[in-house]
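Pasting two entries for a bug report.
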Amino acid sequence: MDVVIGAGLAGLSAAIHLAAAGREVTVVEARDVPGGCCGTAELGPYRFDTGPSVLTMPGVLAEVFGAAGEELDRWLPLRRLDPAYRLLFHDGSRLDVLPDADAMIGQVRELCGPAEAERYRRFRALLGRLFAAEWNVFVDADMTRLRALARPVALLRLAAMGGFRRLDRLVAAHLTDERLIRAHTFQALYAGLSPQRALGVYAVIAHMDTVGGVYFPESGGMHAVPVAMAALAEKLGATFRYGTRATRMEAGGDGVTAVRLNTGERLTARAVVVAGDLVRAHAELLPRAAADWRLRRPRFSPSCVVTHIGLERPLTGQAHHTLHLGRQWARTFAALEAGRPQPDPSILVTHPSPDTLSVLEPAPNLLGRGWDTVEDRLLARLDALGYGDLSRAPRLTWDPRRWAAEGHTAGTPFALDHRFTQTAWFRPSGAARRVPGLHFAGMHTAPGVGVPPVLLSGRLAARRVLKEAR
């Protein structure tokens, strides 16, 4: 039997690929529902998504269902958001990120002028080339062995396109309007870094959402994604043990032997996929032989404060995603990297249903300070931005302390940051070299943070399990 620990998106992806290949699979999940980080919560009549709100690259999700011979649309119809984002700048100007290329170029022309629109058209093409150069070599690729990096032609191609420059410098070499530069560099925070520190290769994140588009389930919110995946895994024969915690993994000379549960049971296992917080797993669950040198001095991403608010009435003319960008750009990122709140916060406002609003502000993780002052300031900022006084509205808030209580080391739901020494092969390995049959999936492993990467990590883990079985 194969045991998958964790029913988040990575674990569900691994379980589906293994079950589709005919393996006997048991998924152990401490919560009572699937989803992991992609969770859900209720407050009276209001239901909130408590995890990721941005879904890009639906083809990756479709591939998971395709592995089982199923069509994604039959299980989980998605709609493409138009606009993907609405960007509101400190000077009062606005840019809607539109899914149609010509319409988007027209938006840039109207905001920034014809010369910048032409520069944007060329930059958009560059993003596509960067994406194509990286995808099969560094993103959808098994990075468990050092030889995965021995790709001189690919590295030279990326270098020639500026992939190893700093992200802000790469973008500024092609665009001149500061608003447009910010629109294509704020995504560095997804990698846990400032645009001044992130490598240019992370411009592909901007490609994923500004070019590839942003999607949303037609019903059920983002939590509908893991619900549909769990249902598919069960159809394929996988067994789910909800409300059950793995307490210890056992291994012998030949590798994995069993997983101990908090119920006192012992599940005999041929292979184990750990799909969760690897720092905690190595400290609490795994044998010493599974130790990974890459986790000796982990560097964590900043965290965030997310306030979910129940509304009496929908907001008129509100986009699904609205990003309010602050004026103090460089100082904002410098503060986060120093473990302090943003001096002039940029916030993401998501309005996924007529009666709910979710507001995210990046914040220091538990290794920093001042995060406990963010919620009150966030509500005041919403009022100043025209959303009204929401301080008395029904709300739930996730802050670093709550993220830590839900199992995220350092109180950040974004795991390790993506500095060069925590990227690709340098990120914690997806396989325990000294414990055959033990594999890892999720944000802490390559390719990293985000819905498409964690889905890929589950598929890569399943592939390794199946390869070992040959």
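Entry 2 (this is the one that rendered wrong in the viewer):
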Amino acid sequence: MLRGRAVCMAIALCISSSVCSMAVSASDSKDEKEVTLRICNWEEYIDLGDWDEEETIDLDSGDIIGENTMMEDFTEWYYETYGIRVKIEYSTFGTNEDLYNMLTLGDTYDLVCPSEYMIMKLLTEDQLMPLSEEFFDTSDQNNYYTNGVSPYIRDIFEENEIEGKPWADYAAGYMWGITGIVYNPELVSEEDASSWKLLNDPAYRRKITLKDNVRDSYFAAVGAIKSELLTSEEFLSAPDYQKRLEEEMNDTSKETIAKAQEYLQDVKNNAYSFETDSGKADMVTGKVAANYQWSGDGVYTMDQADEDGFPLAFAVPKEATNIYFDGWVMLKNGINGDFAKQHAAEAFINFNSRPDNVIRNMYYVGYTSVISGGDDMRIFEYADFCYGASKEETDTSEYDLGYFFCEGEGNEGDEYVITAPSDQVHRQLFARYPTGDAMKRSALMVSFDDEQNRAINQMWINVRCYNIHDVPLWAWGLAGIAVCALAVFGVKKVRR
């Protein structure tokens, strides 16, 4: 079973602070030159080793187990491969905004792993250093990233630009996913769970949770208020559908923000809670019937519910889903022209992109890697290991993952088709590797400029701190009397 992020919290990477440091080295020798690499990553977002023997992943191509931390294994591999010793100073952050504040206050790192919108922001501010030409050399067998990244993900990184700078030149993907709804199929229908309008549906009053952050909640609100447009045949069949979908989902016009605020105020009255991490436990314990969730945490939630004999499902809203990424980027003020640091930073990305290490990280973290493995079949083999049907099962479905693993437009052939239990079409397999049809209605949420951020942040303050729908009728009555009295007083004053 996949652990998920929350299970890793007990590991002693962090003791009491949300930001911690770890120093690991391949050797204690003081006589050789040593490169110090400062890395900052999400909490509980890399394999820290110490697996139990029964956790061994037994693939046909060989066993995989995490005995040491990924940092310890990297320093050993780097010395064996390049003859240079590396000391890693490893720190963590809790949110993208935490990382940005740390950088603003003067913390210096060489390699960090923010989400796509924060990568866009850092790129706009000219804080990022481009990846070297050597990093993209496909003839180098140690360049596991460029030789193994999913063609689907690679295309997204190459097609998206910020101020004329392609993402792919500056960022290497790490994990990815989409947003959707984890739900109890005994209490919520698949049809209801497949729309953002579920969040304010009075039929599920006090039975739904949603994310306590402005970006995720705003995306859901826009999907709900534009549901009729986004699901219309004319919109869906437009030749530039993908472009129009992204434009609509990133609409920050005054009219859309006002409608989103009104919708979220309805949701606030209808929901069980706004949450960041507690929604997983609320679903497993049955406190709520549906939870707006990131797909990686959705997998963890369903895994935990399965252990209690409490099956849950995952749905992707028909209007749109937000595709998100976390990716490795090098900071200019950290690398500062030091070739040795840059080489070590890029090698760290490559080491974590090696198929066996990809599987270790996915198992430990619970999210899905952007790496498909290229000619190495182990990552697909791992997906089949986790979700493929046993020989005894008869109720099965063919689940095609060609869009993620295959090169080319057609993605033809059955090489990347998993024969899975039929319920997995709506459960963990669907959340970890959504179908091609679901991905067609995925949209990135871009980095907003300062004016746009001010507008939606004010909207969020209005929703979270003040709800116009909470004002009782007697208060409206008093307000009306006061307004009338002021009007009468004004008229008399004018007459005088």
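Dev reply: Rendering is fixed now. As a check, the viewer should reflect this: The longest helix spans residues 473-495.
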